[in-house]
Amino acid sequence: MNELETLRTIEQPVKATSSSTASLAQRDSTAARGARSKIALFGHFGWGNFGNESTLQAMLYHLRRLAPDAEFNCICTGPETVAAGYNISAVPSKDVLVQPWALRDPLARWARKLVIGIPIEVYRWLKGFKSLWGTDALVVPGTGLLNDAYTLFHWGPYDLFRWAATAKLCRCNLLFISVGAGPVYSRIGRFLVKTALSLADFRSYRDESTLRYLKGIGFRAEQDRVYPDLAFSLPESLIPRGHDSKGHRLVVGLGLMEYAGKYSVEKPSDAIYAAYLETLVEFVKWLLAHEYNVRLLIGDLVDAPVTRHFKSLLKERSGWPEKGRIIDEPIASVEDLLSQLATTDLVVATRFHNVLLALLLNRPVISISFHHKCVSLMSQMGLSEYCQDINHLKPERLIEQFCQLEKNAASLRPMIRQKAEGCRKALDEQYHLILQNLGPPYRHLERGRQIPGLVRQL
C-alpha cells in the first residue's frame, strides 16, 4: 500500500507511528467513548489553489496516519470538490442563501442588512453549531488565511472568527497549525484575527515573519511555536523522482501569478503589475535567445488568464518561438503541479507554494516576492540572495540573479535537500505534539515524547 492510497481513503488500515501500547490505548479509549473521534478541518480548500490543497493533503495524510480511527469533516470553500477528492464529508464554510444585489441608497443597504442580512447570519451560526456539535477538534491547517487583504467577510477574518468561536462553544479543541498571517489593515480585522487566535488550544506559525507580524499588531505570541509550512510534509510517494536534461536544453519553470498587490500595500498600483509582466516577457525573451526552454507554471486556477495575457504579450514583443520552446500544459491538481515542476531544472516563481514545492523537489529557485512569507521562506532555505521584490522587479537584475543561480546550482542542491529534510523532520515532531490536542482519545498518547519548544533554525 502506498502513501497516496492512504491519503485518499479513510477506512483502509494504516500503520500508526506510535508504539503498540499507545495504539492499543487509543483503540480502547475510542471504544470506551462508544464512537469514533471526530476531527474537522477548516480552510480555503477545493477552489483550485494548489498551495492550499497541498497543505490539506499533508495534514489529512498525517492525521490518518496517527489517528486512523478518526472521522473527518472539512469546512471549506469548495465542499463538493474536497468530498470527492479525499473521500471525506465536507460542508461549505459560508452558505450563500441570497444573491446580493447592488443598492445605491445607503438607507436601502442598511434596511437590507437589517431585514435579510441579520437573520441569514443567525442561520449560519446555528448551522455552524450543527456542523461542529460532537466534534473533538477543529484544525486550521496551514495557509495564510489570517489576513483581510481583500475582505473582512466571505473568506476573511470574520468567518474565521465565527467558526473559531463556534468550535469553543461546542467544546471542540481548536488548533492553528503552521499558519501564516498578514496583512491585516483594518482595526476590526485585527480584532477578529487576534480573538480567533486567542481561543486556540494550540498555535504554530509557518515562519518567523508571521510571529513578528502578529506581535506587531498586538497579539501576545511569545509562547507560540514556529514550524515549517505543512507542504514540506507531503507524502513521499507524491514526490516525483528523476529528471535528466543532459544533452537537451535546460528547462526553466516560470510561475506566473494574478496580481496580489494588496498583500504588499493597501492601495496597490496597476503599473506595478504591468511592469511585472513586462519584466517577465523580457526575461523569457532572453531565456529563449540563450537556448533555454520555458515551462509555464500555475499555482492557482485564477492564474490561467494571466498566463494567456503573458503569452499574448510575448507574441507581440518577439513573435511565437518554435514549437516546444514554450511548454504550457493544463493542470488540475497538486500531483499535476509536482509532475510539471519535476521536468524543470531551474525555477523562477511568484506564488509561495510554487517556490516551496520546487524546493521540495530540490530545484534551485528565484522567488519574486509579493509578501513577507516569500522572503522568510527563502531566508529559511539559505537562498536570500535569490529573492526579488515584485514592486521593484527589473529584467536586468532578474537575468543577473538567474545566471548566478545556474552557476551555483550544483552546490545549492545539497543544501536545499538538507533544509527540506530538516523541515520534514520538524513537522513530524509537530504532528506528534498536536496529537494530544486532538481531544480525549489522543491526549495521553504522546506526553512522554521530547518536543522542541520552538523550531527556528532548520
Strand % is 5-15%
Helical content (DSSP H or I, runs of 4+)? 40-55%
CATH class of the largest domain: Alpha Beta
Largest beta sheet: strand ordering? 3-2-1-4-5-6-7
User: What's the alpha carbon Rg, rounded to whole Å?
Assistant: 23 Å
Low-confidence stretches: 1-34, 446-458
Alpha plus pi helix count: 14
Tally of strands: 13
Order of helices and strands: HHEHEHEHEHEHEHEEHEHEHEHEHEH
What is the straight-line distance between the termini? 31 Å
Largest sheet: 7 strands, parallel
CATH superfamily of the largest domain: Glycogen Phosphorylase B
Could you report the average pLDDT, rounded to the nearest whole number?
Answer: 86
CATH level-two architecture of the largest domain? 3-Layer(aba) Sandwich
Number of domains: 2
- Shape assignment: globular
Q: Structural class, please?
A: alpha/beta
What's the quaternary structure here?
single chain
Find the CATH topology of the largest domain. Answer: Rossmann fold
Provide a descriptive summary of the structure in words.
- By secondary structure, the protein is α/β, with parallel strands linked by helices.
- The chain is 46% helix and 13% strand.
- The chain has a seven-stranded parallel beta sheet with strand order 3-2-1-4-5-6-7. Strands 10-9-8-11-12-13 form a six-stranded parallel beta sheet, sandwiched between helices.
- α8 links the parallel β6 (202-205) and β7.
- α5 (106-132) packs parallel to α6 (157-169), α9 (270-289) packs across α10 (304-318) and α9 packs across α14 (395-435).
- The longest helix has 41 residues, at 395-435.
